[in-house]
Amino acid sequence: MNSRLALALLAALFSTAVPAREAAAIRIVQTSAAVAADPDHPAWDAAPASVVKLETAFPGHPSISGTALTQNAEVRALSTAAGLAIRLEWSDPVADDRKTQHRFADGAAIQFPRDGKPETTPYMGGAGRHVNIWYWNAAKNAAENLWADGFGTLTHMPTQDVKASGRHADGNWRVAFFRAWRSNEPRAAGLRGNRPAAFAIWNGANAERDGFKAVTLNWQRLQQAK
Amino acid sequence: MTQRQLAMVIDLNKCIGCQTCTLACKSQWTDRNGRDFMYWNHVETKPGKGYPRDWEQAGGGWEAGGDKLKPGRLPRLAEDYGIPADFSFEATLFQEGGEPLRPTEAMQWGPNWEEDQGTGEFPNGHFFYLPRLCNHCTQPACLAACPRQAISKREEDGIVLIDQERCRGYRYCVAACPYKKIYFNPLAGRSEKCIFCYPRIEKGIPQACAYQCVGRARHVSYLDDKAGAAWRLVHEWKVALPLHPEHGTQPNVYYVPPLSTSTFDAAGKPTGTPRIPDDYLVSLFGPAVQPALETLRREIAKKEKGEASELMDMLIAYKHGDMFRLDRLGEQKP
Ligand code: SF4
Ligand code: SF4
Q: What is the domain extent for residue A173?
C-alpha cells in the first residue's frame, strides 16, 4: 500500500467517525429573563453553544456560483415566557452593514419546516411542504419573515412578527432572533417542542446573497431541555 | 420572440447632445427615492468611457452560441456612476464673492462626464453623441440571469420589466446586462430600469425621451408594422443597427450610424477619409455599419442634387407625428 492511499483511507475513516454533516442538537434552555432579540443579554451565558457546520449551498441557478466563506456558527436557544429566542454567532472580520450599488450586506437566516417534520427538504422546502424562514440582514439590522416552497419561491409574509438584531464586535457577528410562541401568520412554523431547523450565513464582502450562502446541509435539532 | 416588439431608432446624425431626453426621463421617473444617481436614458460622448464608466468592459451578455451568460461586474457609485451631488446654488446666487457654481462634494464621475471630449488631434478631432437606454432586448441577458423570475418580457410589445414585488436586489441582472442599463436602488433594495414608458405606450403616447427629442432623432414603432419607421429603417433600408450586437441580446433600440466630415492632411487638404474611423464604428455596430453608411451617403447625394430620397425624407422627419406609430394590434391605421 503506498503512503498516499494509506492517507486517503485514514482520511475516509476519520470522516466516517466525525461526519461533517451530522445534525447538531441545540438545547433550548429555559430562562425567566425577557431576552427578546437582544444579542448581548446576559441570559445567553446560560445556554450551551452548539457548533453547526456550514457548507456552500447547492446553487440552484446558473447565476449563482462561488464558495461561501463561513464554515461554522455557534447556535444558542432560549425559551422565555413570551417566545423562542435563537442566537447565531460566527466569525466575520468585517461587518458589511451597508448595501451600496456594488456591495452586499452580511446576513443570517433560520429555516423551519412549517409542519415541524424533517421530511420537508431543507433546500428551501418543496411543493406542498413549505418552510418558514427568519432572515436578518445587516443593512437593515431587522428580521424579515418569509416562506418558500422551492428554489426561487421565497416570499415576504403578510405578518412580520419576527424580531432580530445583531451586533458586530471583535471580528464576530452575534445575531439574536425572537418570535412569540403563537403567530397569527397561518404559514408560520410552530415553535413548541422539538423542532428541526436549518441555518444560513451570508458574507456580504464575498458578494454572497440569495442562494450563494453557507448553510447547514441537513436539518439540525432544536431540543427542549427537560 | 414575443408576439410584438416595440422598437426605437435613434439617428446619430441628428442627435445634438442636448440631453432633453435625459431630463425628460429623469423628471418623469428617476428624480427621487434613491434613484438620483441613475439615468435610465443618458447621452454619452463617443469615443469615451461612457456611463457607467467603462461599461463596455464590464462584461455581461451571452457567450457565442447564446446558451451561457458571460460574467459581469457591478458598477460602483462614486467611481462609475457618479454621486448625485448638490450644487452650490446658495453661495453662487445669494452670497457675495462671485463663487462659481460647483458641486458641493467632490465628484469622480457622472452621466455626462466626458461631454464633447472625444478623441483625435486638431484639426482631426472627432466625437459624436450616443444616447443610451435599455434596449428591451429580444434575448435579454438580465431576464435569464434572475433566479427569481422577477424579470419578464411582455408579449404585446416586448417591453422588459422588473417585477418590484419579486425582486430582492440580488443584482445578477445588473452584472448580466452588457449595456449596464439596470440600476440597483440601495434605498429600495431592488433593481430598477427603463420601462420604455409603458404607461404612455399603452395610451398610444411615445416614450418621454422620444417625444421630447428636439433633434427629431428618435423614431418609434412596432417592428412588425411595415409602415413604421423601425421596420423601414432596420429591415427595408438597413441603415439602423443595434449597438454591440456581439453580446447576443438582440437589442431593439437601433442607431443610424454617424457620418463625419473628411480628415485633413498635413498640408490642410481634405483626405476623403471620414474622421470617425470605420473600424471604430464597426466595433460599436458590427460590420453592417459600412453598407449602412454607404446607403446614407448615396441618399444624401441624391438630395443634394435635388432628387427625391424617401429615406432622407423619413430621417428628416418633416412632421413630428410621422416619427411615431404606436397603434396596438387591430387598431392599426393603414
Ligand atoms: S439592455 Fe440590458 S436590461 Fe435592457 S433588456 Fe437588454 S439585457 Fe435587459
Ligand atoms: S433629446 Fe434628442 S437630440 Fe437631444 S440628446 Fe436626446 S436624443 Fe439627442
A: 3-224
The interface pTM score, or ipTM, of the predicted complex is 0.90
Residue B25 CB burial class (10 angstroms; 0-12, 13-18, ≥19)? buried
Q: Which residue of A has its CA nearest to B184?
A: A101
Query: φ, ψ for residue B114 (rounded to 5)?
Result: -105, 30
What's A38-94 look like in SS3? CCCCHHHHHCCCEEEECEECCCCCCCCCCCCCCCEEEEEEEECCCEEEEEEEEECCC
CATH code (residue A71):
2.60.40.1190
How close is the Cα of B21 to the center of ligand 2, in Å?
A: 5
Chain segment A10-65, per-residue pLDDT in tens: 434 333 333 445 688 999 999 999 999 999 999 999 999 999 999 999 988 999 99
Q: Is the CB of B217 under 6 A from ligand 2?
A: yes
User: Measured in angstroms, how far is the CA atom of residue A152 from the centroid of ligand 2?
Assistant: 40
Q: What's the domain count of chain A?
A: 1
Question: How far apart are alpha carbons A89 and A72 in whole angstroms?
Answer: 9
Beta strand B218-222 pairing with B324-325: parallel
Q: How far is CA A154 from the centre of its chain?
A: 16
Domain B6-325 CATH assignment equals 3.30.70.20: yes
User: Cell 423562542 identifies what position?
Assistant: A84
Side-chain half-sphere exposure of B328, counting CA atoms within 13 A = 11
